[in-house]
C-alpha cells in the first residue's frame, strides 16, 4: 500500500502544505482524475488549509471531488463552499458507489 501511495504522489498531481518544514496537510488525485485523499492534521484543522489545497490543486484543471458519505464534516463544508457544485439529477444528489480493490 505504501508503494501505491508513493507512486500516486510521484505520477499524479498532488498538494502538500508544510509549516516549519513539517507536513501539516496533503491532497492527492485519484487515477480517474477525481480529487481524494485530503488530510489535514488535527491541530491544523479549521484554518482553511483544505480550501487552499483544493484551489491550488484545481489551478488550470476542471475537477471532480469524491467524499465518503460517512465523512459528514467534509460533505457539509463542501456543500457550503463557493468552489464546489453538488452534482444533481432530477433534483436529487448524485451518489457514486465507488470501490478500489487491491491485491
TrEMBL record:
Keywords, sorted A to Z: Acyltransferase, Transferase
Entry keyword Ion transport: no
The keyword Lipid metabolism is annotated on this UniProt entry: no
Enzyme class: transferase
Lineage: Eukaryota, Metazoa, Ecdysozoa, Nematoda, Chromadorea
E.C. number(s) listed in UniProt: 2.3.1.-
GO molecular function (one): glycine N-acyltransferase activity
Organism: Heligmosomoides polygyrus
Family indicated by similarity: Belongs to the glycine N-acyltransferase family.
InterPro entries in alphabetical order: Acyl_CoA_acyltransferase (IPR016181), Glycine_N-acyltransferase (IPR010313)
Assigned GO CC terms: mitochondrion
Official protein name in the record: Glycine N-acyltransferase-like protein
PANTHER family for the chain: GLYCINE N-ACYLTRANSFERASE-LIKE PROTEIN, L-COA N-ACYLTRANSFERASE-RELATED
